[in-house]
Amino acid sequence: MNTPAIRTRDLRKTFRGGDGGRVTAVDGLDLTVAPGEVVAFLGPNGAGKTTTIDMILGLTQPDSGSVEVYGQGARSAARGGRIAAVLQNGGLLPDFTVEETVRIIASLHGRGADSESAMARADIAHLAGRKVSRCSGGEQQRLKFALATLPDPDLIVLDEPTAGMDVESRRNFWSAMRSDARRGRTVVFATHYLDEADDFADRIIMIARGQIVADGSTSEIRAMASRRVVSAIMDESELAAVARVIADLEVVERRGGRIYLSATDSDALARALLTGTNARQVEIATHNLEDAFLALTSAA
Ligand SMILES: Nc1ncnc2c1ncn2[C@@H]1O[C@H](COP(=O)(O)OP(=O)(O)OP(=O)(O)O)[C@@H](O)[C@H]1O
C-alpha cells in the first residue's frame, strides 16, 4: 500500500481551561488520509479541527498519540516542503503588491518555485500589481494559497480558508483550489460549511468534541444522512428486542425523552417498534444532510 499522506494514531490534546481545569480539544483521533484525497474536516466551533490541523503541521505537540505525514514526523515533512498550509491568521505584508509577495516567498524556496504558475493556479495573475492592503479578504486568501503552493507540496492543509468570504469569493476560491487538486495534490481543509464540504471534498470527516463522529465519501455521508429516522418515546431496555429483529439498527440520538433510530428499512423498524415494544408517539422523518450534521455533532 502507498504510504498514507497523513496517519494519526490515538491523537490527544488538552489545554488548560479558564477555570483551572483541562479542556479536551482532541480526544483519541485515529485517521488515515491517502495520497490524492481531498478531505474536509467538518464540525462546529470548538470541535477540535484547528488543534488537529496544528498537530498535523507540527505546530502543536500532541499530549499523546502520533502523527505521520508521508511516513515522517510532521516537522520534518514540513521542512522537506512536502506539506504546506493556509492558516486562519497567517500574516501578509500590506504594502507589497501581490506579485512582489509571491516573488519574495518564491525566492526563499529557491529554484523551482515558479511565481507565475503559482499566481495562475490561485487565479490572482490579474491582481499582480495590486497592493495586498487593497485586496479583498477572498483575494488575500487566494494569495496565501498561491504562497502555499510555491514549494509544490504533496499535501496542502487549509484551516477554514473561506471564513468571512461572500458567496462569490468562496466560489472563486474553490474553483482555483479544485483545478489545483485535480493535479493530484492531497488537500485537507477545515470548514463549518456543509455545502462547501459536500461540493469540494471526496471525503467528509465529521469531528465533534475532539472525536470523529462520521467518516465517509460525500455520497456515503449523503446516503447516511438521507436515511429516514424513526423516533419514539420508549424504554431504553426495549432496544435490544428491536435490534434482534432489525439487523442494522442504529441509535442516532436521544433527545427530549425520545430515542431516534435509523435502519435501511424504516417501515420495518416502525413496525417492530409498534408491534414488539411499548414505544409511543412513533414518528418517521427524513434526515437531510443538515439534520445529520446536527445530530452527529451535537449528540451528548
Ligand atoms: N491554546 C488553547 N488554550 C486553551 N484552550 C484551547 C486552545 N486552543 C484550543 N482550545 C480549546 O480546544 C477546543 C478545540 O478548539 P479548536 O480551535 O481546535 O476547534 P475548532 O474545531 O477549530 O473550532 P473553530 O471552528 O471555532 O475554529 C475548544 O474548546 C477550544 O476552546
Description:
- The protein folds into 2 domains: 6-222, P-loop containing nucleotide triphosphate hydrolases (Rossmann fold, 3-Layer(aba) Sandwich), CATH 3.40.50; 227-298, Alpha-Beta Plaits (2-Layer Sandwich).
- It has helices at residues 49-56, 74-79, 98-109, 115-121, 137-149, 167-181, 194-200, 218-226, 239-245, 266-276, 289-298, and strands at residues 6-16, 22-33, 38-42, 64-69, 83-86, 155-159, 186-191, 203-208, 211-217, 228-233, 250-255, 258-262, 280-286.
- It has 11 helices and 13 strands.
- By secondary structure, it is an alpha/beta fold.
- The mean pLDDT is 87.
- The chain has a 6-stranded mixed sheet, sandwiched between helices. A 4-stranded antiparallel sheet has the order 11-12-10-13, with helices on one face.
- 35% of the residues lie in helices and 29% in strands.
- Helix 4 (115-121) crosses helix 5 and helix 8 (218-226) crosses helix 11.
- It is elongated.
- The structure holds adenosine-5'-triphosphate (ATP).
- It is found in: Cell membrane.
- One of its GO terms (biological process) is response to antibiotic.
- One of its GO terms (molecular function) is ATP binding.
- This is ABC transporter ATP-binding protein.
